[in-house]
């Protein structure tokens, strides 16, 4: 069933947070076109960049710049327009605003002022990459861009090395090789990675494997050091059952033969004195 955009009430406007394509204009969703066309003003990360998109969809709404260097006065101006009942549509250069893109201050201010904020979902590079990478996707963490300097990058990677969730990074093409080499050294050469490049575009490439092998491939093919890149890193293996003592393992083993995990963890906690969450996680890891 299609749902049209909600009507703005007369007292205050609506802030639409509008996702735009990350390469392929065919990914522009109809609600996004409608929101941009019907808005009083479009707050765009880069008005010149967005002019092409707007022209392509024959959107004639006026666009004003709203980017990370816009001072608080620009947020105030947009807020005043919203409070006066106007509709503002926020877009970034590509993908979903606020995801490694400007917009946080405006959304925050609007919500604090009681303005209705409506997301118009669409393309987002991290979600597109995750959906096709074939890495565990039940739990993941998005880290944005790693630090550009190697020392800080390696420190960040060291802090993330034991993370068991799939980790997702955005990376600049001129740093991709150095980053892969840092991951191989800090996290280990065998850690599984997927490099997702130029998603939705002509040279879309998804390649996975141990990080050392990926680094070698990228080093030998300069085309892989161009375009836009998402890096996904398989999480560290979950801790082995060895972190429970033998008696607790035995108790949990018996309980799990008879009961669902949640109940086994709850009763196991009473019997062993260990934390229920820890036993629950132990049981999940064991499955
Ligand atoms: N807001 C955007 C989103 O929703 O994904 C991300 C903006 S961030 C400034 C730009 C970064 O996103 C790029 O450097 C790259 O890491 C990633 N990215 C954007 N488009 C991409 C694409 N088509 N393929 C792969 N990565 C992309």
Polypeptide structure, described:
The structure is a single chain. The chain has 287 residues and is of the alpha/beta class. The protein folds into three domains: 14-123, 3-Layer(aba) Sandwich (Cobalt-precorrin-4 Transmethylase, domain 1), CATH 3.40.1010.10; 126-233, Tetrapyrrole methylase, C-terminal domain (Methyltransferase, Cobalt-precorrin-4 Transmethylase, Domain 2, 2-Layer Sandwich); 246-286. The protein is 40% helix and 17% strand. The chain is built from eleven helices and ten strands. It has helices spanning 30-38, 47-56, 72-83, 104-112, 125-133, 150-160, 176-186, 211-219, 246-258, 261-272, 276-286; strands spanning 14-18, 41-44, 63-65, 88-91, 116-120, 140-145, 166-171, 192-197, 205-210, 229-233. The strands form two sheets. A five-stranded parallel β-sheet has the order 3-2-4-1-5. A five-stranded mixed β-sheet has the order 6-7-10-8-9. α3 crosses α4 (104-112) and α6 packs across α7 (176-186). The protein is globular and about 70 Å long. The two termini are 39 Å apart. 33% of the residues are buried. The model has no long low-confidence stretch (mean pLDDT 94). It binds S-adenosylmethionine (SAM).
